[in-house]
Amino acid sequence: MHERLREALRVTRQAVADGSSAESATRDLLLFCHGFCTALTAHHEGEDRDLFPAIAEQYPELRETLRYLRQDHSMIAHLLGGLQAAVTRAASPAELHRHLEGVAAIMESHFRYEERQLLTVLETLALDADPDVVLGPL
Hints:
Elements: H1 2-18, H2 22-58, H3 63-88, H4 93-124, H5 131-135
Helix pairs in contact: 1-2, 1-4, 2-3, 2-4, 3-4
């Protein structure tokens, strides 16, 4: 899922970089951002709702790590809100680029930390749930 979200962000950033005008970039970004922002939000909501409680139950020593990851989810949601507001008001490509860079930096840092801390756990976690519901659709 992280790789698919990384790719969606790359495509979104490319849409802004390729825009020959603010109007063109904003139109492309509306399409890409809606899908990307929705997918990333659903991914984090599923983790908070289903995955992290299951990990905390089976691996109580990871509760502090999960708390940090939830804080990241909140920060990323705030950044996505700023990006969506910029897209809605047809911000300049330069402003859209700044928003995307902020989302990319925090998202990548978050994903890498999560992967380092939880990858082994996820390989052994007994979770009785649909992965598309827990990890979000993309």
